[in-house]
Amino acid sequence: MKESYPRWEDLHVDCLVMVFQKIGVESLILGIPFVCKSWYRASLNPLCWRYLCLPAHFNPFMARFMDEYRVKKHKSGIGFVKLLVHRSQGSIAWIEIPHWCSELQGLESISDELDQHRKMKARVSEI
Fold first, then answer.
1. Contacts by 107-111 with C-beta closer than 8 Å and gap 24+?
2. In Å, how far are 2, 21, 44, 66, 114 from 36, measured between CA atoms?
3. 25, 67, 83, 119: most buried, per Cβ within 10 A?
4. Which residues, at least 6 apart from 106, have a Cβ–Cβ distance to it below 8 Å?
């Protein structure tokens, strides 16, 4: 008789999100979405993006990102972080930004984007 084990793709979304919160941005973007449909859907949950530690070496990471997602136009470091802020829907609680993304204007822009998401959430919750 063949034993049957639970399959990872059958895990409840909440469980997957809890696991995905603990992995790095690189795996969350370049690995998890390509495993199966349920993992892809779970990776879209804003809670997966609450704690972000960006890769120290941007260019190799960005080259792989562009290849995986078939992006033709190179994003700047700040543009990429804005993409992550958007993906988090303003739920970022902690973000570690390496030197390649530490220009003051860029950080202010990221902060403004987070504020906009939080204000939008506040307005929706008032309704």
1. 109/78, 109/82, 110/78, 110/81, 110/82, 110/85
2. 24, 18, 13, 20, 30
3. 25
4. 77, 78, 81
Write down the pTM of the prediction. 0.70
Contact 114, 92 (CB under 8 A): yes
Domain containing 47 equals 10-126
Per the CB < 8 A criterion, the answer to whether 105 and 79 are in contact is: no
CA distances from 119 to 49, 95, 124 (A): 18, 19, 9
pLDDT at 123 over 60: no
Provide the domain count of the chain.
1
- Separation between Cα atoms, residue 88 and residue 45, nearest integer Å: 8
**Whose CA is closest to 26, among 61, 50, 56, 60?**
61
Helix (H, G, I), strand (E, B) or coil at 95: strand
**What pLDDT digit, counting tens, does each position of 47-78 carry?**
999 988 877 777 787 778 778 878 777 666 77
Indicate whether 35 belongs to any domain: yes
Quick check: is 83 in a domain? yes
